[in-house]
Amino acid sequence: MSSYDFSAGKLDYDLLRQLIADLPLDERVVVGPRIGEDAAVVDMGDRYLVASTDPITFATDLIGWYAVHVNANDVATMGAKPLWFLATVLLPEGKSDEKLAREIFAQMKNACSSLGISLIGGHAEITPELPRPIIVGTMFGEVDKVKLVTSCGAQVGDVVLVTKGVPIEGTAIIAREKAKELLERGVSKDLIERAQKFLFDPGISVVRDALTACSVANVHAMHDPTEGGLARGLWELAEASQVTIEVDVSSFPIVPEGQQLCQAFGLNPLGTISSGTLLICVDEQEASEVMKALEKENISVARVGRVTSKGEACVVARHPDGTLEQLPDFPKDEIVRIFE
């Protein structure tokens, strides 16, 4: 019997490390498969090609919109501009029709148009025994070699910033997928409708966040917290850079709507899927400039912690009373529980 957990969520990281160890890589691969990195990077001569792939498996409403934005986020966190998108669209047999197919492709087209991205190809099929539509996206972008940012570049002394709030994507998914249950659990209709709009405002895209930060500072590392929420994102950043990050839990920007919707289902908002939030590591001397630039673009940002040491991947939470403990990790996203 396997010692690894194969319930819904990300593959166990210990197992994943073994699976990606010693993979054959072309000499032009600058960033290959690593835990905590958002995308791969290939040397194309005068610049780098950045490539990422991600599926949309939780959401069904506006799945095409999600697919473009979450993949664009991964490319942007490397300091690159997302340019080209490929999509594999799997539609469930017996539950799909022309209207559904047209809606999904219209969503992808609109999302691509909003970011200046070209939808250049992919695959579409009707898949047997599939419970709901699934899209697997692949995004490509380009970046000047000197402007590449990775998740493994965090340095001792760096300030850790978080844009917008958490859990933006989780809030939108819960409100869109579980509106009826939320009403039954006493959540107001106004709050649900407000949370449903989180997909667009504050929005799940961090492309503008990332490119704005990189335009004013030498950003050392960025990461896009998705499954496992902000907590998992911090642990992945620490893992990629092999650093210890100390965070002030009272500074975490948890959005009120997300707090209430998570509470209705007994979920921890720090472990709930958080596309729309960007983690940024930047030198203390440049942190203020990054924050000013983001706020000028009407992107809220909070200073949540600092990189304290090198050599061990750890995230330490400081509580208001001064006590310290490891920040909880969420290998399985909290939102999985509402679909079980």
Instruction: Report the total helices.
Output: 10
- What percent strand? 25-35%
What's the domain count?
A: 2
Structural class: alpha+beta
Helix fraction bin: 25-40%
How does this model look, in words?
This protein has 340 residues and is α+β, with helices and mostly antiparallel strands. It has two domains: 25-147, 60s Ribosomal Protein L30, Chain: A; 159-339, Phosphoribosyl-aminoimidazole Synthetase, Chain A, domain 2 (Alpha-Beta Complex), CATH 3.90.650.10. 32% of the residues lie in helices and 25% in strands. It has ten helices and 13 strands. The chain has helices at residues 13-20, 63-76, 98-115, 168-177, 179-184, 189-196, 207-216, 229-241, 256-265, 284-296, and strands spanning 29-31, 40-43, 47-56, 81-92, 118-127, 134-144, 159-163, 221-223, 243-248, 279-282, 301-310, 314-318, 324-326. Strands 8-10-7-11-9-12-13 form a seven-stranded mixed β-sheet, with helices on both faces. A hairpin with an 8-residue loop joins strand 1 (29-31) and strand 2 (40-43). It starts with 12 loop residues before the first helix and ends in a 14-residue tail after the last strand. The relative contact order is 0.17. The model has no long low-confidence stretch (mean pLDDT 95).
Summarize, please:
32% of the residues lie in helices and 25% in strands. It has 340 residues and is an alpha+beta fold.
